Inverse folding.
């Protein structure tokens, strides 16, 4: 039986940085969802209701329905330490983050955190996330298990490191291959889960560990790769000192074959032109984490330099350096950072960065990212709810485009009324 969701629809059909197109908006629209959780049709409510006269109706009133939000960079074992103490990246890692990540050695603690973490993503409208898992295989397994039962879609992997931190967090090269392989095989059987080989960053990986990453990617080419790059000046200088033979930071990863179309590099705030050109050649994606970049004083992400080279960019919360679990807030932060660089992000660009851009960068755009028939019905229902100010602000809007822009710029967890994954409600009430 088809289910019809009634509301105002908004989604991106293409990349507005290339096309300049506005979002596709259908006020008084409808989404027809098949029993198998895929989208059958999207369009004006009257047409859809006539096409499926016997369908079950789910009326969302004057709410907006947008595709599920994609978080391109978040750390599971930093779930409890947002807004932790630290001056900048390296001392924040050492003083606040490594001790917090060590707590995931307790399986019981990790199981509880995994349930709360996945639930939090869903309540914030995130239906897909690329996640740095724990250094402990059992804790990363707990994360996958929590996501398997109710979502969201996850691409995750053990955070790999074998130096520059307390030894308890080390994933030594000699055992890492087997541990990752086991998780990769378990995840392969799960339709909504994928594995990402996850060297933390160059400074925390020996050459032997990077070689293990390379071997994993070679043996399991469907895996994604995620790491950090060019985030902070001290980090960049230390990387140069640690890998003196490499031309630059990107080269450390590229030399091990870790940079390609399935790679997502987080931050990239301070790249030289040569690195940007190579990133474009190698077709990797870059994750923009504006709130984190401000919290740690890392800098302003040069979005324009990436767009000019057609480097795919997605947006990430980077919890715990970031503090916005809700990607709508991260989009508002991205807007502000771009304004400081005289690059205006209109509603199409914001919506794209939070949805289809993420789907494309993660190679999931055949399944998610917009309301194209045949894709999975992953969507978010946005409404002011009992927020009197947003209600009033909505009433003052002159056009649906303006209302959508305001909703993205002002939206947060309390405005996520429901989250749907493959046509199934996974957060919110009737
Ligand atoms: N670089 C290496 N590890 C981390 C991390 O956990 N967070 C951030 N923001 N940058 C990193
Ligand atoms: Zn990070």
């Amino acid at each position: 039986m088809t289910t019809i969701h009634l509301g105002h629809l908004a989604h991106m059909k293409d990349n507005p940085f290339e096309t300049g197109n506005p979002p596709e908006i259908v006020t008084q629209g409808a989404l027809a969802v098949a029993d198998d959780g895929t989208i059958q049709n999207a369009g004006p409510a009257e047409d859809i209701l006539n096409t499926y006269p016997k369908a079950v109706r789910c009326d969302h009133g004057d709410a907006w329905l947008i595709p599920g939000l994609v978080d391109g960079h978040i750390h599971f074992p930093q779930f409890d330490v947002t807004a932790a103490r630290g001056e900048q990246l390296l001392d924040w890692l050492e003083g606040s983050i490594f001790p917090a990540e060590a707590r995931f050695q307790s399986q019981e603690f990790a199981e509880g955190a995994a349930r709360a973490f996945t639930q939090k993503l869903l309540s914030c409208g995130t239906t897909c996330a690329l996640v740095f898992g724990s250094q402990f295989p059992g804790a990363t397994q707990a994360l996958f298990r929590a996501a398997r039962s109710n979502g969201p879609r996850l691409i995750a992997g053990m955070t790999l490191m074998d130096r520059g931190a307390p030894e308890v967090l080390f994933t030594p090269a000699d055992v890492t291959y087997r541990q990752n392989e086991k998780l990769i095989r378990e995840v392969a059987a799960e339709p909504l889960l994928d594995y990402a080989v996850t060297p933390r960053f160059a400074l925390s990986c020996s050459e032997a560990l990077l070689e293990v990453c390379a071997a994993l990617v070679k043996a399991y080419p469907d895996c994604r790769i995620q790491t950090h790059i060019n985030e902070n000046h001290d980090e960049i200088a230390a990387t140069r000192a640690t890998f003196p033979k490499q031309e630059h930071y990107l080269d450390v990863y590229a030399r091990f074959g870790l940079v390609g179309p399935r790679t997502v590099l987080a931050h990239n705030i301070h790249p030289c032109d040569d690195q940007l050109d190579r990133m474009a050649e190698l077709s990797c994606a870059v994750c923009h984490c504006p709130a984190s970049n401000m919290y740690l004083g890392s800098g302003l992400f040069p979005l324009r330099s990436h767009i000019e080279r057609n480097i795919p960019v997605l947006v990430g919360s980077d919890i715990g350096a970031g503090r916005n679990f809700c990607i709508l807030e991260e989009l508002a932060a991205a807007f502000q950072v771009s304004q400081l660089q005289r690059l205006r992000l209109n509603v199409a660009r914001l919506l794209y960065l939070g949805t289809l851009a993420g789907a494309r960068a993660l190679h999931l755009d055949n399944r998610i990212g917009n309301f194209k028939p045949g894709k999975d019905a992953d969507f978010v229902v946005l409404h002011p709810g009992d927020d009197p100010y947003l209600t009033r602000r909505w009433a003052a809007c002159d056009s649906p485009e303006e209302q959508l822009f305001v909703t993205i710029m002002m939206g947060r967890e309390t405005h996520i009324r429901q989250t749907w994954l493959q046509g199934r409600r996974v957060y919110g009430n009737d």
Remarks:
- Residues 69-325 form a domain with the TIM Barrel fold (CATH 3.20.20.140).
